[in-house]
Automatic annotation (TrEMBL):
GO molecular function, one term: dihydroorotate dehydrogenase (fumarate) activity
Protein name, UniProt field: dihydroorotate oxidase (fumarate)
Subunit structure: Homodimer.
Reactions catalysed: (S)-dihydroorotate + fumarate = orotate + succinate
Cited CDD domains: DHOD_1A_like
Protein family per UniProt: Belongs to the dihydroorotate dehydrogenase family. Type 1 subfamily.
Main location, first listed in the record: cytoplasm
Pathway: Pyrimidine metabolism; UMP biosynthesis via de novo pathway
Uppermost EC category: oxidoreductase
Subcellular location(s) per record: Cytoplasm
Domain Dihydroorotate dehydrogenase catalytic as annotated: residue spans: 4-294
Family matches, as InterPro entries: Aldolase_TIM, DHO_dehydrogenase, DHOD_1A, Dihydro_DH_chainA_dom2, Dihydroorotate_DH_1_2, Dihydroorotate_DH_cat, Dihydroorotate_DH_CS
Organism: Lacticaseibacillus hegangensis
Length: 312
């Protein structure tokens, strides 16, 4: 029988699947439903220093092969998610979870880091450097100088396990440059990838965009993102220090997709668009499909094939 247990840094998880930040994780009720699902762990909605209402609706749409969204980081504020995480760890000792946070400007990041450092939170923190959907705000991790400055400021105050959520990169020189920066900091993980930023979808019946914010531009997820996600996980696995783990995100709609992200080096696999469109049942379906794929290949544990992609 195949086991889906996994590890990331010093942490162990009963199942390799988790939600992707932003999907089914904004409120306590949603987070509790994730906790009661087969997912091995969960991550909160990206929290900012102050609560945010986000962008005007409609701001999310299901497409033929995935989703488009321009949510604009609606969230209940970092204090809400820290309080939830503290309560969670009291109720569920030994079940580590992730906080996701983002600054609206670079100077917010050390403030967020200090808040979490000063809290009782014992899990892992994902600093989101890649939200494509806040009007007027660039995706930080496409600006390498700002990325380095933010990491330096975070790690001046932050001593707990930390990671960064990255946007997709498309050029091998970018992978080299970003990995060189990341390897200089005591990161426990990266999460790759966030949505493909600023896609556009047009309704053939009405010639209009699918969502309202930013003239219809939005982050693309689902099957459209899979080859890019595989490439990003693989490229970073080849370049990052061995002690930096990877959460593989992007384009996972079947157990086979998850298997391929693990072949590229993922320690955990997170579900965004498919969780948004199929609901929590996706964890059960994908777990069983991944077990079948492993059985077909003769594997009983994820460690046997993690990172073992074959090339010609
Ligand atoms: C509705 C929605 C909201 C999202 N909000 C966030 C967020 O708050 N923080 C974040 O890091 N990523 C956010 N994302 C990106 C996802 O976490 C994920 O990286 C992306 O959707 C790619 O995965 P997928 O192909 O499985 O959808 C959001 C995605 C969707 C669809």
């Amino acid at each position: 029988m195949a086991s889906l247990t996994t590890t990331l840094g010093d942490y162990a998880f009963q199942n390799v699947f988790m939600n992707a930040s932003g999907v089914h994780c904004q409120t306590e009720a949603e987070l509790d439903q994730l906790a009661a699902s087969p997912a091995g762990t969960l991550v909160t909605k990206t929290g900012t220093l102050e609560a945010r209402a986000g962008n005007p609706e409609p701001r999310f749409a299901q497409l033929a092969l995935g989703t488009i969204n321009s949510m604009g980081l609606p969230n209940l504020g970092i204090d809400y998610y820290i309080a939830y995480a503290e309560r969670f760890q009291e109720k569920h000792p030994g079940r580590p979870i992730f906080l996701s946070v983002a600054g609206m400007k670079p100077d917010d990041f050390p403030l967020l880091a200090q808040k979490i450092q000063d809290s009782g939170f014992t899990g892992l923190t994902e600093f989101n450097l890649s939200c494509p959907n806040v009007p007027g705000k660039p995706q930080i991790a496409y600006d390498f100088d700002t990325t380095e400055a933010i990491l330096a400021a975070i790690f001046k105050v932050f001593k707990k396990p930390a990671g960064v959520k990255l946007p997709p990169y498309f050029d091998l020189a970018q992978f080299d440059q970003v990995a060189a920066i990341l390897n200089r900091y005591p990161l426990t993980l990266i999460n790759s990838i966030n949505s493909l930023g600023n896609g556009l979808w047009i309704d053939p019946a009405t010639d209009t965009t699918a969502i309202k914010p930013k003239g219809g531009f939005g982050g693309i997820g689902g099957q459209y993102a899979k080859p890019i996600a595989l490439a990003n996980v693989r490229a970073f696995r080849q370049r990052l220090r061995g002690d930096i783990s990877i959460i593989g995100t992007g384009g996972v709609t079947t157990g086979r997709d998850a298997y391929e992200l693990i072949l590229c080096g993922a320690n955990l696999v997170s579900l965004g668009s498919i969780l948004a469109t199929e609901g929590l049942g996706a964890f059960t379906r994908l777990s069983s499909e991944l077990e079948s794929e492993m059985a077909k290949k003769g594997y009983t544990s994820l460690a046997e094939f993690r990172g073992q992609l074959k090339t010609l």
